[in-house]
Amino acid sequence: MSDICVIGMGYVGLPAAIMFGKAGHTVHGVDINTALVNSINKGEIGAEEPGLRDALAEALANDRLSVSETPSAADVFVIAVPTPINDDHSPDLSYVVNACRSITESLAAGNLVVIESTIPPGVTVNTVAPVLEESGLKAGGDFSLAYCPERVLPGNVMAEIVGNDRIIGGIDSESTNRAAELYRSFVTGTLHESDATTAEMVKLAENTYRDVNIALANTIANISESVGVSAWDVVEMANKHPRVDLLKPGPGVGGHCIPVDPWFLVAADETSSGLIQSARSVNDGQPSLIARMALTVADGVASPRIAILGAAYKPGVSDARDSPTAHLVRVLSEADAQVTVHDPQVKSFTPSLTENVVDAVTDADVIVVMVAHPEYDVLDPARLASHMRARSVIDTSNILDRDVWTGAGFDFHRYAEPN
Questions:
Q1: Which are the contacts of 413, defined by CB distance < 8 A and separation ≥ 6?
Q2: Distance (Å, rounded) from C-alpha 28 to C-alpha 68?
Q3: What superfamily in CATH does domain 3-203 come from?
Q4: In sequence order, what are the residues at sequence separation of 6 or more whose Cβ sits closer than 8 angstroms to the Cβ of residue 286?
Q5: Which of 91, 144, 168, 268 has fewest C-beta within 10 Å?
Q6: Rounded distance, CA 282 to CA 177, Å?
Q7: What percent of the chain stands above pLDDT 70?
């Protein structure tokens, strides 16, 4: 078993550190966020990830995990830090570069370094390796270097980090073999061995595939609405074809992966990535489309009061990073609308979340259901109507019963179908 130092204690790094510890390795986690470090060492986490809190408590109790702000000597270093994009959509590699630079003083001959952060193709070889070589050691000669991207779904991380297949791509065959041996200690899925740049491309292709297909669904939805038919019916019936599997349309794409990763492919080859850029434009434009819909429904009301239900980037999670609701709030606020937001799972958001749905809709003119949380399937429209200034609702995800809401006196609108 190895001593492992994991840099980055976020949504990816902490579960990885815990699973390495559970497999018998001794793990030291590192993060520059002092408050996060202190919380983890107390067994406290903000993310509502099933099984994560108990697994952390077990790792701490068994002395398999310690966390601080400073890297320490280890046999293996795992880099799991964010890779956001800049305002111009170019990749921001500063977190990865700084994390790699932070371990150069601890790096020793015979070590293995694994990058889990999502990065553009070629970065492991052309950026990460040179930074690590500032230690005076040679990548592929003195130490091994591999890329192994995470493949987990928020809300099911603890199961998927073990059971999902993984891509292992080293800068040479020894690096690939050593990284595969490391992940084999807890991963039950198949380990697919390749080279670093191919592994980088695989990760980006996976998320870009999803983004492009969501954009196709949204485009079909917008065209369906413009010609006067229900996109929900179109998708349902088109999927009766044995070789068609359209996704459902929605109010946008959020989270830390899908809205970001396609831009890494654009950065690698802007000329060949027109389809990818178009898909990003479609999906990024959805919140503005919903905003226009809400303002139209509230037509004639000065400074309309709009209650948004759902702040998470998708149903069933507490993660609101880059959520469509965040974009919607900005657009509505710029249009002088007064906005309230409720979410049963998200803990922190701007503007501050209301404690319950009734507080959110009190004196509102329009309700916009942005996230298909199960809690919103069972709302009592008659109860909500009694607290509102006007009675209009917009269902962006096809989860509300039109007859029930119209029966309660609501002016009912659903995205992607005639209203």
A1: 293, 297, 392, 393, 394, 395, 419
A2: 8
A3: NAD(P)-binding Rossmann-like Domain (3.40.50.720)
A4: 218, 250, 251, 252, 253, 324
A5: 268
A6: 41
A7: 100
Q: Look up residue 136 and give its two tokens.
A: 């005076």
Q: Is the pLDDT of residue 361 over 80?
A: yes
Cβ-based neighbour number of residue 53 at 10 Å? 14
For residue 180, the tally of other CB atoms under 10 A from its CB is 18
> What is the side-by-side strand order in the sheet with 65-68?
65-68, 26-30, 3-7, 76-79, 112-115, 144-147, 166-170, 191-195
The beta strands (E) that lie in 205-337 are given as 305-309
Q: Give yes or no for residue 297 having a pLDDT over 80.
A: yes
Report which residue type is found at 94.
S
User: Which residue has 């899908």 as its token pair?
Assistant: 258
Q: How far is CA 219 from CA 74, 226, 265, 324, in A?
A: 50, 11, 22, 17
Decide: 367 and 393 in contact? Cβ < 8 Å.
Answer: yes
Band the pLDDT of 404: cuts 50, 70, 90.
Answer: very high
CB 327, CB 394: distance < 8 Å: no
279-414: CATH architecture: 3-Layer(aba) Sandwich (3.40)
Helix (H, G, I), strand (E, B) or coil at 235: helix
Q: Are 351 and 339 a contacting pair, CB within 8 Å?
A: yes
Residues 6+ apart with CB under 8 A from 69: 30, 31, 32, 34, 37
Rounded Cα–Cα distance for residues 16 and 5 (Å): 11
Q: What does the domain layout of the chain look like in residue ranges?
A: 3-203, 279-414
In 175-313, DSSP assigns E strands to 191-195, 305-309
Residue 275 and residue 378: Cα distance in Å, rounded? 39
Structure token pair of residue 86: 């800049």
Of the ranges 14-23, 46-55, 323-332, which one carries the lowest mean pLDDT score?
Answer: 46-55
Question: What is the chain's mean pLDDT, rounded?
Answer: 97
What is the reported pLDDT for 229?
Answer: 98
Rounded to whole angstroms, the Cα distance separating 76 from 78 reads: 7
Residue 46 pLDDT? 78
Please list the active-site residues: 203, 257
Beta bridge partners of 26: 3
Domain 3-203 and domain 279-414, same fold? Reply is: yes
